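job 3f2a | input accepted
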Amino acid sequence: MQVQYVVGTYIQDIPMKHTLLLLALLTPAAFALDSSNDEYLGASIDYVRHGLKLNNNALPGGKSQDNTTVGYSLKAGFYSNPNLSWELEYANAGKASQYYRVPNAADDHLEMSQQSVSLSAIGHLPLNDKFGLYGRLGVARLTGRATLDLPSSNSSGSLKATATVPVIGIGVEAKFDNNWRGFAELIQTKKLSFNENTDWSELTHSVRRFSTGLAYHY
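job 3f2a | predicted structure (218 res):
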């Protein structure tokens, strides 16, 4: 829980322009130093914690609630040296929902989903020949959809939101042989805001993923 708190707090303090500048400076060096010839493909099952928040006049008593679902991610990357790799990842965080009790009416319902494509620089710290730690810093393009069903007011609707935000993560990895490695990682991005409609201006969706998976190196 302490690790989750640190990650969640730290990411709020990373200016977007600083993250983009850091990646822009590091990328040319990565390609110039590409001598390890270590490329990989990977996949993971993600345990996703969703944070939904909605406060507006349409849903009196609106509240925030965390939902835990299962998602997945696919990734491809290469090492520019033994301690630095570059990774492109697609992640599907699945769906989360929240019901809002309304007096003398059926519950109103909010459903959220989110996907992302990210590019990250990953720093690796080997502990021994089999195990190591790593940290991720990158940028992610988030795409989310919110759907509201409001029996209390006999209405419904949906919104779509996109944003480019920083992504950070910390993880551990294990080397099984020259080709196969396992990993476990905690990843978080900044929350996604839905502000296209003034009635839903305080609707936000945050995602924190705990990923466990395998990578094949070739």
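job 3f2a | The radius of gyration is 20 Å.
job 3f2a | closed
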